[in-house]
Structure formats: C-alpha cells, structure tokens
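Bumping with the actual sequence this time:
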Amino acid sequence: MVIRQLADKLVAHARIASQGLRWGHLKRSYDCLTGLSHGASGIGHALLQVACYFGMKGYVIWQCRHGSMR
C-alpha cells in the first residue's frame, strides 16, 4: 500500500495554520502555495482521492476541520 503510506506522510508533514493546512517550509521555497499543481489545493485533492479509494473517512473529516476544504 505505497499510496496509503505516501498519503500518511503528507498528512504527517502538514502544518496547521490560521488559514488552513500548509506544506513546504524550506528556507528558499515559497511558503503556502495554493495552486492545484504545486500547492495545498493539489495536495488536498490528492488526499481526498486517496480517502475515497481506500474508504478513509478520517482524512475527509481531518481536512474539513483544518481548513483544506474551506
């Protein structure tokens, strides 16, 4: 279940911020990108696809609570 392991890794590396979830916080990277191809919306979409495929209701609830679906 490599896909599930990678999804869990994305969730583990998420940072909760006042605006929602964030990924990517290297010194020389853009912080909090929001686009579908390189940002939080793309990550959120991928996690929702994984959740639907594997029937992981917890991912959907977690994203709703922490802002990826605002």
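The tokens above came from a reply further down the thread. Residues 40-54 form the longest helix (15 residues).
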